[in-house]
Amino acid sequence: MSTTEHPTGPHSHDDAELAEFGYKPELKRTLGNFHTFAAGISYISILTGTFQLFYFGYGSGGPAYWWSWPMVFIGQFMVALCFAELAARYPVAGSVYNWSKKIGNPHLGWLAGWMMLIASIVSISAVALAYQLTLPQISSAFQIVGDGTGTYDVATNAVILAAVLIFFTTLVNAFGVKLMARINTAGVFIELIATVVLIVLFAVHITRGPQVVMETNGTGADYGTGYLGAFLVASLASAYVMYGFDTASSLGEECLDPSRNAPRAIIRAIVASFVLGGLILLLALMSVSSLKGEKLSTDGLQYVVLNVLGPTAGKAMLWCVLIAVTVCALAVHTAAIRLAFAMARDNNLPASSRLARVSPRFQTPILPTVIIGILALAILVVNIRQPQIFTVVTSIGIIMIYLAYLGVTAPMLVARLRGRWRPAGDGKFSLGRWGLLVNIVAVVWGAGMTLNLIWPRASVYNATAPYHWYLRWGAVLFVAVIAGGGFAYYWFIQRHRTGVLAEHSLEGAAAPATEVNSP
């Protein structure tokens, strides 16, 4: 049996967990407790998600869709608790990939990492498109292409605005994690303050009671199962928001005391998002002047803000939403870079030695930063003349994230049942005797919501013309192609090359990525 030399130096305690993977510390530790919390909450992004998807939830399920928010929170909180326990044990870059590899096996780890990486790139594009939902509402000057009434005016303009944002996130991430953290932290601070202010302003303009969340607007009439069918569709609006909390751990190699800070950041990020986001949605329904008309189902919360607060205060709040969208895209891009770096460090991607190279000046992997930015821009092109196809692609991204999460919680459950799971000691976060129950709920929830997300409903995947069968079945087909095609490439080509690259290997560590033992 080979022995592993544990790192020594000012952060040797923080780097100890890296030795179990055979990695030497390379990324600079500069992030504190609030930085890690900010990374998680900016990925979830209360203002981005709620403002981007309220129209869909309301249009699909009426005011009663609000109940999907606590439902999704409970399920995702179970997942977050499992992740927090893993973050205390293994606070490493590319968290989902490395966790799945460690507690499952290298093949499952690669598939979880691949799904998460593709989904993250798609998510960057999807988040960036939120600029179109906000900027033209602030000023018509931001409708650069036409006047918004042409067939492709909105879709094309959305791509232009999104491209500017992706260029910004690429540039910031290329200059290192410290600059990213400063911008992200400032943006999150503004977002949290704006969220609290918005809640207060909505509260003082209430026109109806909380019983509004019992109204369905007759949305269940077109479903054989009644309102349940409408509610399951509407719940996608909440499911599309509450994920990405694992980002707090993906920056684990750049955080101080990560095995303690990362679990706290994961839990705080999802709880804060649930409380604040839930209040925004509830109070928006209670304060808007009328629940009738199409604006709530087309313009969503942007319309509610302008309707309740008026043009001046409303537009000021929309600027805060714009900041939230910006830091959300930045956080998603950052997480994708760490995941690509983690996989490349194990020689699990094409041109891995270049992708895993850390800039000595900026102390961040620059090549993945640029490539991910270019790929996100390329995906945007689909939206110019086929926005419905882009909606399918975006939905596929969310499905793959839920599948990647299952690639962690499912093997973790197997490890528990076999008595092989050992949480971190030394007073670090642990679920204790509740671990098995929480893990079971997390797996059942993940499988159930994945099925709900991927179900080929016309109302989700083919709601408007042209009505093509491949759009309705797009999620099933594309996930199968991405997962199957990607894994075939790994199995026949990449797995034969897998192993920690020499330049990233801790001196004396002889365990390659394909031979990591489960705890």
TrEMBL record:
<feature type="transmembrane region" description="Helical">
    <location>
        <begin position="188"/>
        <end position="206"/>
    </location>
</feature>
<dbReference type="Pfam" id="PF13520">
    <property type="entry name" value="AA_permease_2"/>
</dbReference>
<feature type="transmembrane region" description="Helical">
    <location>
        <begin position="470"/>
        <end position="492"/>
    </location>
</feature>
<keyword id="KW-0472">Membrane</keyword>
<feature type="transmembrane region" description="Helical">
    <location>
        <begin position="316"/>
        <end position="341"/>
    </location>
</feature>
<feature type="transmembrane region" description="Helical">
    <location>
        <begin position="436"/>
        <end position="455"/>
    </location>
</feature>
<protein>
    <submittedName>
        <fullName>Amino acid permease</fullName>
    </submittedName>
</protein>
<feature type="transmembrane region" description="Helical">
    <location>
        <begin position="34"/>
        <end position="58"/>
    </location>
</feature>
<dbReference type="InterPro" id="IPR002293">
    <property type="entry name" value="AA/rel_permease1"/>
</dbReference>
<keyword id="KW-0812">Transmembrane</keyword>
<keyword id="KW-0813">Transport</keyword>
<feature type="transmembrane region" description="Helical">
    <location>
        <begin position="389"/>
        <end position="415"/>
    </location>
</feature>
<feature type="transmembrane region" description="Helical">
    <location>
        <begin position="154"/>
        <end position="176"/>
    </location>
</feature>
<feature type="transmembrane region" description="Helical">
    <location>
        <begin position="64"/>
        <end position="87"/>
    </location>
</feature>
<dbReference type="GO" id="GO:0022857">
    <property type="term" value="F:transmembrane transporter activity"/>
</dbReference>
<feature type="transmembrane region" description="Helical">
    <location>
        <begin position="108"/>
        <end position="134"/>
    </location>
</feature>
<feature type="transmembrane region" description="Helical">
    <location>
        <begin position="226"/>
        <end position="245"/>
    </location>
</feature>
<dbReference type="GO" id="GO:0016020">
    <property type="term" value="C:membrane"/>
</dbReference>
<keyword id="KW-1133">Transmembrane helix</keyword>
<feature type="transmembrane region" description="Helical">
    <location>
        <begin position="362"/>
        <end position="383"/>
    </location>
</feature>
<feature type="transmembrane region" description="Helical">
    <location>
        <begin position="266"/>
        <end position="288"/>
    </location>
</feature>
